[in-house]
């Protein structure tokens, strides 16, 4: 099973303060451990929300709201994608991360294709969604 | 925390820690079987104590510490036995008296080399293939005997027996706990890769039962492959195998239809392929090629898989390149199965008659006599050439040979279709 590991933003990450050399080195070592254990599929750090935007969908219009966004604790500062055997294993790996005091990390299980089987007995929804994804991929 | 939660956490810690634990211990006690028993003892201690005492802050260190103490006890016991032997005149290689700090320091050394030693020991040629698979999943994958039994659809005692026998074989053959060097290395790496790919294939195309695949085993194999790539980053074939597995696994979500029927590669909805895995696979293939391994057996198979992965639709498949890659693969690892695949690529690139010529040359091949894909492919060519009666006979023969129930249905369906299209 796969888990998305969501690293929550804080004042520093939102202010664009880069992590200390020590933390970067520790993170590098931790990432290496994840890779060596065959657990890490991907991961990225995100720029502050001041460089982002939100698009709100109205009845017939789309409104663009520029960052930064105020609810710091709800924002995402980075993510990993883990391949593990169980939720507990994902938690065990996270506990080993060298985050500093006050950091908060959320883990969420990723849907796999087979998880949709009960609500989509014919597979039609999946096909439609897959077609959409194909269009998105094609535009990249 | 209720006990079962604690147990699940202990299992997770075990999966993470046990390979390093066993590898570190094996270097000290020079016996993989004993090392695993010591690690298991630590696990049992955790299962006894943690539900009441709570899970320690650093569970890995706790297991490590507990296992170390057992290792030291066991070494001391052995020392006593050795002294007894010496008393009765046995020639014993005098080892220096190990102190506790020595052992602690030794176990805490860089574990990469130990893990690699464990990999080569688990896949040692003195063991049967089944034993290699069971031991690798158990010692390096951190799977329980029960999990291995479930994955391979065999009774748990059978797997337990295999592991016990494998450990005994290693001890009796006095297999040294080391990484092979020189000319032996390449051959031994191949043996390790073969074990990992076998595990992957068992998951990718379930050979028995009604399941078309068991993705859990694919994940286990890929994790083992990633670990190996971390341990041996300069071995091109490790990256070749990784690439092959990632690209094949990218299709897992597209290989089965809504009612569980298999969907052939060319009929799959490519939007359902996992593009992250494809990207990872292509990167691993590039790495293998950079290291000069383009002509490795796994790298070539990965390159073939990559031809499919790069084509946005089935119609865009570069069949001529594919036929060329299969011709290269036939040079490196000549086999009737490779030839059969080459026939398919050739037929797609240059027409079914060309493909049929290759397949007909394989009809006398004894090793393919019971191989369902030969009549299945031949039936496909004959159908395209309009020779429907012959095609139907081939599809029916293929259906009678396959061990997979879903595949059988698909083949009988194709046989019936030849009658309808007349």
Can you tell me about this structure?
- The complex is a heterodimer of chains A (140) and B (422).
- Chain A has 140 residues and is of the alpha+beta class.
- Chain A has two domains: 2-109, Alpha-Beta Plaits (2-Layer Sandwich), CATH 3.30.70; 111-140, no CATH class.
- Helix content of chain A is 32%, strand content 26%.
- Chain A has four helices and six strands, in the order βααββββαβα.
- Chain A has helices at 11-14, 21-36, 87-95, 124-139, and strands at residues 2-8, 40-45, 53-57, 62-66, 76-83, 105-109.
- In chain A, the strands form two sheets. A four-stranded antiparallel beta sheet of chain A has the order 2-5-1-6, with helices on one face.
- In chain A, a hairpin with a 4-residue loop joins strand 3 (53-57) and strand 4 (62-66).
- The relative contact order of chain A is 0.23.
- Chain B is mostly helical and 422 residues long.
- Among the domains of chain B are: 1-98; 113-174, Arc Repressor Mutant, subunit A; 198-205 and 212-312, no CATH class.
- Chain B has helices at residues 3-29, 32-53, 59-87, 100-108, 111-122, 129-139, 145-152, 156-172, 183-204, 215-231, 236-249, 275-290, 297-310, 319-332, 336-350, 352-362, 373-384, 388-401, 405-420.
- In chain B, helix 1 (3-29) crosses helix 3.
- Chain B is elongated and about 80 Å long.
- The interface between A and B is medium-sized, with 33 and 29 residues.
- Chain A: This is YciI family protein.
- Chain A: InterPro entries: Dimeric_a/b-barrel (IPR011008), YCII (IPR005545).
- Chain A: Belongs to the YciI family.
- Chain A: It comes from Pendulispora brunnea.
- Chain A: Residues 1-112 form the YCII-related domain.
- Chain B: Residues 188-288 form the DUF6596 domain.
